[in-house]
């Protein structure tokens, strides 16, 4: 797998919104995203560790390369 860049939670949310996800709620520092036919995502709004980011990308059903192109 390619190396992922350091990404903040807000940057990740914007990238996932380009995939069709919508913000449904926020509680504290976590944003809940949902899209029709896809798994819901909970994204923390701080600097994401690479493992957390990789897990979110996998749950969204895209590749790391596709995600990086959305940033």
Descriptive report:
The protein is 39% helix and 21% strand. By secondary structure, it is an alpha+beta fold. β2 (30-34) and β3 form a beta hairpin. The radius of gyration is 11 Å and the shape is globular. The two termini are 17 Å apart. The model has no long low-confidence stretch (mean pLDDT 91).
What CATH calls the topology is Metal Transport, Frataxin, Chain A
Number of domains: 1
Helix content: 25-40%
Which of globular, elongated, flat, extended, rod-shaped describes the shape?
globular
**If you average the pLDDT, what whole number results?**
91
| Straight-line N-to-C gap | 17 Å
CATH class: Alpha Beta
Query: What is the H-and-E element order?
Result: HEEEHH
> Which architecture would the CATH scheme give at its second level?
2-Layer Sandwich
Structural class: alpha+beta
What's the name of the CATH homologous superfamily? Hypothetical protein
Query: How many helical stretches?
Result: 3
List segments where confidence is low: pLDDT < 50 over at least 5 consecutive residues.
none
| Biggest sheet layout | 3 strands, antiparallel
Count of distinct strands? 3
Strand order of the largest sheet: 1-2-3
Strand content: 15-25%
Q: Nearest-angstrom radius of gyration?
A: 11 Å
């Amino acid at each position: 797998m390619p190396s992922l860049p350091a990404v903040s939670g807000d940057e990740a949310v914007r990238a996932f919104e380009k995939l069709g996800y919508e913000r449904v709620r926020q509680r504290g520092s976590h944003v809940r995203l949902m899209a029709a036919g896809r798994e819901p995502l909970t994204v923390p709004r701080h600097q994401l560790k690479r493992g957390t980011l990789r897990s979110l990308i996998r749950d969204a059903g895209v590749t790391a390369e596709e995600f990086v192109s959305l940033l």
